[in-house]
Design a protein that fits this description.
The protein is of the alpha/beta class and 496 residues long. The protein is 41% helix and 19% strand.
């Protein structure tokens, strides 16, 4: 079919609070490279990304990016829109105002003792400041809730209000967001977590095959006739959230509701009642998607496959999916931290770091298995097995389908046809540096945001250089001189 592309591209943005500024710098460099490479191979003008996916702050960036593209019908200026957003939510901290003095003071003592560097101290105390005063366009000052369960005065719960973040998001993105491939629009995928079920939930801007926009999770409810697939009826998933007009700002904030610090995000949903065999409305509560899927490669690949196999009825391998992924939490460090803040920082990076390589291994193994089954089927045909016999086998019910959480598969055919097709994965990895602190995700200070924007850009340029060659990278950057906002942000601001 002419409408089925050979390949598609996805960008996946991790969660990490203020580190999301790094993603914007990485996106700008990646955009320049992809635009140049498309032009080089005679494919200029195609979608930069067919899928835009994110978790937590990655969901915020993804929503703004998708909104800009569908509203302006172009990718030109999309990076600048994201930069404007980050300049808007960043705040000049008190340490920012006295940065030169701090660099000199800490630099002096660093000559004699193993103390923090000036830039590290600036970030540390900027984070402390925001923890007390809040970040005006991101979260409110904390309010204390006394312990009414154990009457322990030391067990007060300090919580922040993220309504300022929602207001900032709505200032830069137009909601609801509903897109379609037929209109040449990117697909937005956001991940959150159902607090009571501890399951990841994916919000999708594309309509399902029946034309509805909804997210299903939990068990797949199927009515079978005596265990056969004859007259089989798929009811839906155990839990369903409908958003016919598209993804709203509440769905985005649900992906970015940091546990404990922020309140749950409430969203109206429906739950299947086996007694009445119908769905009943209820309110469900959601937390930050980073708890279970901070790098949602698995969720993106599954959604991509379901769209093409179930939605577009592609029986052979679905279009190859190439991925550009930005990781915010350093995978490795050069030495073990021995101070408390350093240990907490490292624990955070490991907890929310990239696990997608394990997901990639599982997906590739399943991809190989599916190909093996197809070759065995062809071998059987070559030796006299009829198509009818093969169909009877493929149409048998999967014996463990009730144990497949969030997976739409009722018969063997669903696991063989429309196989995953994973292409190249470009991972841009933020590196650990001596300036990192444990509360880095709350540091929205102007200087830190500038550093992160520039670091993301530089690291992506380096990653592309290493993988595709220096000349190609130089040419790709030279070919896109529409804005030099990042080049104005000098990484030489670190004076220690």
């Amino acid at each position: 079919m002419a409408s089925i592309p050979k390949e598609e591209r996805a960008v996946i943005l991790q969660g990490g609070g203020s580190l999301g500024a790094y993603e914007v710098g990485a996106y700008k460099a990646g955009y320049q490279f992809i635009k140049y490479r498309d032009k080089k191979i005679g494919d200029a003008g195609r979608q930069i990304f067919d899928i835009i996916a994110g978790t937590s702050i990655g969901a915020i960036n993804s929503a703004i990016l998708t909104s800009y593209v569908i509203e302006n019908k172009t990718w030109e200026g999309s990076a600048e829109k994201l930069i404007d957003f980050w300049n808007y939510i960043s705040t000049e901290s008190i340490p920012d105002k006295f940065a030169d003095y701090m660099m000199s003071w800490w630099g002096y003592w660093n000559k004699f003792f193993d103390v923090a560097k000036g830039e590290t101290a600036r970030r540390y105390y900027s984070s402390k400041e925001f923890a007390i005063t809040g970040a005006p366009n991101v979260f409110s000052p904390p309010h204390a809730e006394p312990d009414k369960k154990f009457f322990d005065p030391l067990n007060s719960w300090y919580r922040y209000d993220n309504h300022p973040l929602k207001a900032s998001l709505e200032k830069f993105a137009k909601f609801p967001i509903a897109t379609s491939r037929e209109d040449n629009q990117p697909r937005l995928l956001l991940v959150t977590v159902d607090v009571m079920e501890s399951l990841p939930v994916v919000f999708d801007s594309y309509a399902k095959e029946d034309g509805t926009r909804k997210s299903g999770y939990g068990r797949l409810i199927v009515e079978n006739n005596n265990g056969s697939n004859e007259n089989q009826k798929i009811i839906g998933y155990e839990h369903e959230i409908k958003y016919p007009q598209g993804i709203t700002s509440d769905h985005v904030i649900a992906s970015a509701a940091v546990p404990i610090n922020f309140d749950y995000t409430q969203i109206e949903a429906e739950r299947y009642d086996p007694q009445t065999k119908s769905y009943k409305k209820e309110t469900r509560y959601f937390w930050d998607g980073g708890i279970l899927a901070n790098t949602p490669l698995l969720q993106v690949v599954m959604a991509h496959r379901q769209y093409w196999y179930f939605g577009k009825k592609v029986k052979d391998a679905v279009p190859k999916l190439n991925v550009f992924q930005v990781n915010l939490h350093p995978a490795r460090v050069d030495k073990v931290p021995w101070d408390h803040d350093g240990a907490v920082n490292r624990n955070s990076d490991i907890s929310f770091g990239d696990r997608s390589k394990n997901d990639e291994t599982v997906l590739l193994a399943f991809q190989m298995y599916s190909q093996l089954v197809k070759e065995l089927i062809q071998l059987a045909k070559d030796h006299g097995t009829t198509q009818k016999m093969i169909d009877e086998l493929l149409d048998r019910p999967i014996p463990v389908q009730e144990r497949l959480e969030g997976v739409r598969a009722t018969m063997y055919r669903d696991g063989v046809e429309g196989a995953f097709n994973i292409g190249e994965i470009i991972r841009v990895q933020r590196k650990h540096d001596d300036y990192s602190v444990s509360n880095k995700i709350f540091d929205f200070s102007s200087n830190t945001i500038k550093h992160l924007l520039q670091d993301g850009y530089n690291d992506t340029v380096d990653a592309v250089k290493a993988r595709f060659g220096i000349e190609m990278t130089k040419e790709s950057i030279e070919s896109d001189k529409t804005d030099d906002s990042l080049s104005k942000t000098s990484s030489s601001m670190r004076k220690d």
